[in-house]
Amino acid sequence: MSKQKLSSIMAGASGEELSAIANQIKTDSVVRILKEPQKTLVMVKVRESVKNSLFYLGEVLATECMVTVDGIKGVSVIAGDDFHKAASAAIIDGYLNGNRDNEEILRQIEALEEKQKKERETLNRQLRKSKVNFNVMGE
Fold first, then answer.
1. Buried/exposed code over 37-59 (b: 16+ C-beta within 10 A; e: otherwise)
2. pTM summary value
3. pLDDT tens-digit profile, the chain (139 residues)
């Protein structure tokens, strides 16, 4: 699983869901916190569609954390100020950085992805009901 996909899944998950996975990792591994979860600001870069140029839209409040899991570094930066979610995401990242083939942890992360897809599909169906089509006279 790629880092980008893993980050996307963890960002969309709830703190409780990530905490449950991180607690399983804590029972089998030695977790050391290198950088306690703390608030930070992150610049948001956006691509302007007309000239196709990049610019900074502004800053977003985020929480960052850094840990080691059995000596392997894990890092997370999560939008918002949920310290437990950031710590859990860093633990999961460190665990997976160790090239571990724990099928149970990967299966749980894939289950989170499927749950998020279903929730997105349900929301999209609800939004499509309110879609408005505009017709221009004379065309």
1. beeeeeeeeeeeeeeeeeeeeee
2. 0.82
3. 788 999 999 999 999 999 999 999 999 889 999 999 999 999 999 998 889 899 999 999 999 999 999 999 999 999 999 999 999 999 999 999 987 667 888 899 999 999 999 999 999 999 988 888 777 777 5
